[in-house]
Each structure stands twice: as C-alpha cells, then as structure tokens.
Amino acid sequence: MFFNTATEELDSYYPIRPECQADAPMTRFKARVGKTLSPRRWNAAFTQDGHLDIAGVLRRIQRGGIHPTIKGAVWEFLLGCFDPNSTTDERNEVRERRREQYAAWKALCQNMVPAVGSGKFITTPIVTDDGHPVEDNNGAVSNGGPMDQREFQWKLVLSQIGLDVVRTDRTLVYYEDEANQAKLWDILAVYAWVDKDIGYVQGMNDICSPMVILLEHEADAFWCFERAMRRLRENFRCTTSSMGVQSQLGTLSQIIKAIDPKLHQHLEELDGGEYLFAIRMLMVLFRREFSLVDAMYLWEVMWAMEYNPNTYALYEESREGSTSNGEANKMNNKLLKQYGKFERKNVQTGVADQRSALAVFLVASVLEKKNKQLLREAQGMDDVVQILGEITGNLDAKKALKEALKIHKKYLSKAKKPIQLPQIQPSQSIFSVKHEMEGTIFAPALEGMKHVKSEDGVMLTKPFLDVCKLIIPVIEKFGAAMALVKSDIGGNVTRLETKYLSNPTKYDHLYSMVQEEVDAKTAKGSSSCTNGLLWLTRAMDFLVELFRNLLQHQDWAMSQACTDSYTKTLKQWHGWLASSSFTVAMKLAPDRKKFLDVVAGSGDINSDIEKFCSSFSPFLEENHKFLASVGMDALKAS
Questions:
Q1: Half-sphere exposure at residue 46, Cβ-oriented, CA atoms within 13 angstroms
Q2: d(CA 344, CA 59)
Q3: Is 475 helix (H, G, I), strand (E, B) or coil?
Q4: DSSP letter at 468?
Q5: From residue 487, how far is each of 283, 380, 472, 475, 476 by CA, in Å?
Q6: Long-range contacts of 374-377 (CB under 8 A, 24+ apart)
Q7: How far apart, in Å, are the Cα atoms of 321 and each of 52, 96, 577, 608?
C-alpha cells in the first residue's frame, strides 16, 4: 500500500531501537503520490519481456525518490548491476552467475578463516603483526602454515571490520540480530579479499549497510555494494603519499574558489585550504549527517541524477555486442533522456571527471548554506568542524540537492571548460628559501619553559600558553600536514588566553579556570576551558612523541614518524572524522631531512629537540594528572 504523508510510516520500514529514538536524526523525506517511484509505476516501466524504460524511472526518482518496498531492486539498476535494455531472462542468468561467483569467493575465504559464513564474526585479531596465528582464537584460523602477503593483510583487517560492524547503524533494530551483523561482516570480508588493490577501509561499512538491509540475498547485496564501490573506491585508495579522496577535496577547493572566493580565502587563512573537514561527507556520502531514510533518499536521487546508460557495459568488460557505446557517440535526444540530469549536463559540456561528482557539489552547497556563520564565527579549523557538525539532522536532502545543481550550473558557467586539477603533492613550499636563524627554532620555547612554574611549583597560565604558542612556528614548517594540529593548538590557546585575560589575577594559576568549571558542572561543554586544556595537552603530547621519533628512529620517513606518534597519542581519543582527516594530512608530511635542515638554524637541532621533550613532558604529565583528578582526562571527541 502506498501512502501520502507520514514519515513515521517510512521509519517503520527501518525501526529504531526505543532507547535510541531520542538521539536519532529526524527524518525529513516523505514519499508522495505522483512524485515518488511507487511499486505500481516500477512494474509498469517494464515491457512484457523485461526491458526497462529507464528514462521514465529516472524522472520519477529525481522528483521524489523510491518507495521502500522496491528500493533494493531499483538500486541494482541505478548502480549498474543490470542493463535496462536486457530481458528478464537475461537478468536472471546474470544474477545466478553472480551468486555462484560470490559463493565461490566466500568458500575460499571460509577455508582460510572458518568464521566466514558461520553466522558469527571476529572483533579481535587472529594474526599477530609478524604473521603468527593468535592463540585461543576459537578456531578462527584454519591455516596454521605460512601465509603470503595478501592472505596476511586480509586476516589482519578482519578484526577491524568486526569492530566497525558493531558500530554500524547500531540504533537500528535490524542489527540487534547477530545474524544480520554477520551478514554485513561476511560481505565486507569477502570484498576485502576480492579487491586486492584497496581491500577494506573504514567507512565502507557505512556504504554497505543499506544494501544489506534492502537486499535479502547476501550475494545480491554484495554485488550491489561492489557496484557502489566502483563509483567510490578511489576515495578509499591510500598510498604512502596520498589518499584518494584528496582529488575530490581538490575539486571542492576549486569550486568554492570560483563561486565564493571570499569564503575560500577565509578557509585558507584558517589553514583549511586542503578542505580536510569535508572528508567524511565525501567518503560515506553524508551517512552521518542524515537519518537512514534521508540518506537512502539522497543516494538514490544522486545516483539517478548521475545515471549513465553506458555504466553496465563499462562494468561488464567481458560483455560482447553492447550497443551502448555506439549510441553514446551519436548522442541524440532519445539517448540523452536516458542520462540523469546532472550527468546529462556534464555530457553536454564535456566534463567527464569522477572527481567532479555530484557529492562534491553537495558539500559545496552545505558550505554555502553555512557561509555567513563560517565567515563570522570560524577562527580555526575546530570551529569549521563544529559549525559543519551542526547540519547533522538539520539538513533537508531535497533542498541540498537543488542547491547543488544550482552551484554546478554556476560553476560550469564560470569555469567555461572541463575541470583541470593540479597534482596534489606533499607541501614543500617552506623549503624554497632557507632562512638562517640564531640557534634552532626551538630556542624561544626552551627559554620560555624556565618560567612555566612559580617558585612554589604551581603551573602558571600565561607562561604555559606562551610556550605552546612558541611551538607554532615549528608546526608551520610541516606545511599542510600539520594544519589540523596547528589549528587545534592555536584555537585552544586562544580560548584559554581569552579566559585568562578576563581576570589575570584570578586565573593566574593554570588549573583555576578548570576547577571553576568543574565546580559549576560546565567542564564537559565543548567550548569549556577544561576541554581546551585537555585537547591542547593531547596535541602537545602528539608533538613531543613526534619529536622523539625523529630522534630515535633516524631511518623513518617523516610520514611514518607522524603516523606512529598519532597512533600512540591522539588516535584513541578521535572519532571517525578526525581520524580520517589526520590520515590524509599525514600523507602531506614534508621530507624529513629538509624539515630538520630548516628548523636547525645555526644550532644543534638534536640537542634542542631532546631538551624540549625532556623538559616539556613533565608539564603535560602534570596536566593529565590534574585533569584525571577531576574526572576530565578521558573525554573523547564526538
């Protein structure tokens, strides 16, 4: 039965656990008669032998989304699982062949790890970092012999997939059933094995989950996910020097620079020119910003708008006799109607670049929506992240898509040619000119540390903050790799300094402002000075650990030193967004030798780094001890 109104009826298809309903994002999408693709309209779109009128289906989806009862079936066409010009019998043959292929891959994985296909899943490591099976793994590993690198890397990631599965859509009643969680884990585990190039990366679980919910047969859900990843997988590609999503971030930067140069300049001045704050939105297609119903509506309308009738033929490389390419070359009006409106515009203007996907323009529409607030209130990247975080549950998908299309049209009119992206390379502009300095760049901070404590051993606010500020020039020498750290330190120093200046006598001692907030029960607020001191201390922990790595591991590349330091300090406290942003940022780390040459000046850099680490660490330890004493040392990022 189709319905006219209520969002409640839509939500009933994907029920939320009672204890989670208060915190779940509000659903805004409503299925509407005459606009939403209904089961009746869907069935009527097929000819007697099964050919699909894809042009009519696309028009209806773009107007009002898809009814929940047919979402899975329609998605298979939108994502290129099936050719709309095929017959029902041909599609049944393709489906059966794919199910057999999935069963074969799954059996292979099960032979290596019996937990695959067992209805259970793994959340603890089954192999050590040096390739040995973990004892007492409850039979998770059957192959105790030597493993090749591919098998080792696959087994290594299975526990991470399990941990991500536990966190995936945990507000839904659907995932209260362990069998459904195991279904998601199995699909991701098999995909990680099949995709030898990229494997599994955190965030893929958010893309896969709706397919698992919508498509009952596990193999069908796998192939739907695999097709979705054809569109998205390059964002998850990670090398020693870059992460795939940087390409789309670069496109986003170009778009904002063209349509809103004032906002772009403001973001660059806040060290946000890399647009790392947009990573989550692009990698998981706004899954965290919308309710499940709204996210699925957003996806299907985007896929309908981006639809290309040649997709199936391009994906099926072994398929012979496809007429799609020939028809595409003719590009007549009839064929153009088989394209989604966004892709049609790209075809007509000659833009054929995956980096200019509709999702990028959707992020641009969010930035434009928050334009005034960003210009008025954002003083650092932490403010940008917080402001954009406010859209969660408060964004209308339909309006956002409409604005994205407007921005796309505006951008094309300004660009007047296909997007030409510069190659994104590790930032090395700081090395073009080497300035000779008296002593090392650490010298001012070393001098400042002598005054951090009073004669009776109390931590003083201004001297401590001054030392933190004096480290910022060191951070700047890292370029874009440390933009987030620099912004975090600078923003928290400013917060604490503002409080101190409001009453220097009252807040002379560093912990006085924290104690005041603890007593007033305001310490846990995101804008509290307690929160500022905690994250400032953690950021400095990271830097001290990084400097120690540079001393103790002379053979490590800068990116390795940064990543190891992050893993040991900040990572445990960061959520998905911050962790992903840091992963990308670390790829931009400068050359180690050139960095040390620049910061050395005329002094002994190794000696000064050692002095800084040994002298500053006790201050950080004292901060942690105090924060722990008032119950504030274990707060995590949201």
A1: 17
A2: 13
A3: helix
A4: H
A5: 23, 5, 9, 10, 10
A6: 374/263, 374/266, 374/267, 375/262, 375/263, 375/266
A7: 19, 21, 45, 70
The low-confidence residues of the chain, meaning pLDDT below 50, are: 1-8, 142, 318-329, 418-437
Predicted TM-score (pTM) of the model is 0.73
Q: Which residues contact 551 (CB under 8 A, 6 or more apart)?
A: 606, 609, 610, 613
DSSP 400-444: HHHHHHHHHHHHHHHH-S---PPPP----GGGSSPPP-SS-TTHH
- Dihedral of CA atoms 584, 588, 591, 592 in degrees, nearest 10, equals -50
| 584 SS3 class | helix
DSSP 61-94: HHHH-B-GGGHHHHHHHHTTSS-TTS-HHHHHHH
- Host H or E run for residue 35: none
- Rounded-to-integer distance, Cα 47 and Cα 258, Å: 46
Please say whether the beta carbons of 616 and 467 come within 8 A: yes
Which tens digit of pLDDT belongs to each residue from 195-252? 988 999 888 999 999 999 999 999 999 999 999 999 898 888 876 556 678 888 889 9
Residue entry with tokens 């028009």 = 59
| Close Cβ partners of 75 (under 8 Å, ≥ 6 residues apart) | 66, 211, 214, 224, 300, 303
Q: Give the integer Cα–Cα distance in Å for 226 and 210.
A: 13
- Residue 268 is encoded by which pair of tokens? 């660059």
**On the CB side of 598, how many CA atoms lie within 13 Å of its CA?**
20
The number of residues in the chain equals 638
CA atoms within 13 A on the CB side of 263: 22
Q: For residue 21, what are the contacts with CB-CB under 8 A and spacing of at least 6?
A: none
Structure tokens at 442: 């650490």
Neighbouring CB atoms inside 10 A of 525's CB total 11
